[in-house]
């Protein structure tokens, strides 16, 4: 049994030493060429920082987008790190990465950072990041209808086995009119109307891609206006094509709900926002399609309590991560406490959602610190009830939170 005064240090050690299965990223291994993003310029021109720098500087949108990638990075660094104190989570993340790389930054000068990155080959940097972030595997976001990516899947190339796959459905479900032409180009006879033949062909597409990509789950990002049941194209494809195929293959359908796209289109990806969503849509799907498995994360803070309660009611629902605008220390701590208090260890507390490889370092370093703090408080509460807290039990709990719960859910048959 652990003594009360030692709980915090033991939990921190276990949390820091346990390897993580990062179940949702936008990362790619080196074999995917230009899709695999890393380095100073990519890190500093991430869309979080673009929006923050434009707001702070009042630079004209056209002026910013006219800059080269390196010029944009220099501009953002000068705006947010030199002329202002980097207090935001996005800027602190950059500093955490540089610190782990041993980079000291004189004011206004990125030359040392660029020189340090030049010491790495890309494969070496991937190994470095996985070690620093304490990762064992990550799951990519893979869209076979994306022309930049589709050629890779046709080639049947092998790639780093630490990078797992998920089949992204955004084009199919959110913009079927455009997706239909891409499906026709791929040889699927979807025709002009969403009739029986078209649905059969969509199911064939899904099955073939699941098998060729070895996808762990199907995934889609949805707007806050998403509702079920419905009679629109998205609802028809979801209920008549996606869910039957997911059930046949025993794969979860991951729904990321609440993204409002292009609220400010002048910012491109940085112009997306957030909206409160309907928990009734999630409850309906878990209830009607009770033999399907659903993974859900919602973007609005206001949805988190309802989502936790829904997960208590439906064993076919796994909630995961602190997504996008929720990936800030205040909200990560709040959400982790809420989920532990309502769900025990039957959830995934975090995923990185990283688009730049380097971000894995700071997102997991920052999240581990918060998760460790919350767990320490909870084990102290248990100690005070007379419950025996042991290192073995803590290790088991952390392993569940950092990947075991996800892997159990993948193998679950309903």
Which labels suit this protein?
about 425 residues; alpha/beta; TIM Barrel; seven-stranded parallel beta sheet; two-stranded antiparallel sheet; about 50% helix
Structural overview:
With 414 residues, this protein is an alpha/beta fold. It has a single domain (4-38, 135-411), classed as TIM Barrel (Alpha-Beta Barrel). The protein is built from 18 helices and nine strands. The strands form two sheets. A seven-stranded parallel β-sheet has the order 1-2-3-4-5-8-9, with helices on both faces. It has a two-stranded antiparallel ribbon with strand order 6-7. Strand 2 (135-139), helix 9 (147-155) and strand 3 (163-168) form a beta-alpha-beta unit. The radius of gyration is 22 Å and the shape is globular. The model has no long low-confidence stretch (mean pLDDT 96).
**CATH homology superfamily:** Metal-dependent hydrolases
User: What is the CATH top level name?
Assistant: Alpha Beta
Helix content: 40-55%
Say what the CATH topology is.
TIM Barrel
Share of β-strand residues: 5-15%
Radius of gyration: 22 Å
Query: What oligomeric state best describes the polypeptide chains here?
Result: single chain
Low-pLDDT ranges: none
**Tally of separate helices:** 18
């Amino acid at each position: 049994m652990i003594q009360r005064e030692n709980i915090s240090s033991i939990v921190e050690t276990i949390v820091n030493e346990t390897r993580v299965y990062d179940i949702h990223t936008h990362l790619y291994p080196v074999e995917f060429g230009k899709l695999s993003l890393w380095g100073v310029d990519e890190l500093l021109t991430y869309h979080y920082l673009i929006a923050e720098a434009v707001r702070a500087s009042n630079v004209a949108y056209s002026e910013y987008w006219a800059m080269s990638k390196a010029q944009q990075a220099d501009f953002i660094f000068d705006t947010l790190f030199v002329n202002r104190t980097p207090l935001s989570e996005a800027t602190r993340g950059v500093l955490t990465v540089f610190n782990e790389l041993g980079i000291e930054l004189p004011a206004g000068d990125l030359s040392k950072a660029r020189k340090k990155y030049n010491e790495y080959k890309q494969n070496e940097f991937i190994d470095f990041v996985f070690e620093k972030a304490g990762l064992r595997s990550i799951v990519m976001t893979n869209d076979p209808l994306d022309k930049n990516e589709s050629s890779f899947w046709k080639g049947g190339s092998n790639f780093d086995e630490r990078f797992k796959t998920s089949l992204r459905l955004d084009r199919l479900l959110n913009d079927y009119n455009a997706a239909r032409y891409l499906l026709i180009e791929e040889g699927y006879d979807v025709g002009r109307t969403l009739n029986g033949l078209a649905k059969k062909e969509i199911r064939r597409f899904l099955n073939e891609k699941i098998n060729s990509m070895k996808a762990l789950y199907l995934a889609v990002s949805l707007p806050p206006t998403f509702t079920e049941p419905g009679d629109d194209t998205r609802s028809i494809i979801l209920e008549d094509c996606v869910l039957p195929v997911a059930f046949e293959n025993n794969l979860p359908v991951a729904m990321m709900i609440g993204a409002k796209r292009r609220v400010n289109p002048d910012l491109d990806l940085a112009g997306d926002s957030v909206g409160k969503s309907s928990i009734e849509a999630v409850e309906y799907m878990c209830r009607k399609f009770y033999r399907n498995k659903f993974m859900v994360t919602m973007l609005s803070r206001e949805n988190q309590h309802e989502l936790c309660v829904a997960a208590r009611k439906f064993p076919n629902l796994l909630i995961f991560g602190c997504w996008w605008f929720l990936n800030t220390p205040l909200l990560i701590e709040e959400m982790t406490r809420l989920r532990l208090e309502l769900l025990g260890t039957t959830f995934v507390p975090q995923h990185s959602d990283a688009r730049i490889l380097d971000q894995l370092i700071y997102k997991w370093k920052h999240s581990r610190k918060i998760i460790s703090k919350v767990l320490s408080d909870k084990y102290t509460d248990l100690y005070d009830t007379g419950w025996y807290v042991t290192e073995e039990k803590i290790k088991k709990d952390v392993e569940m939170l950092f990947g075991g719960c996800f892997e159990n859910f993948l193998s679950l048959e309903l």
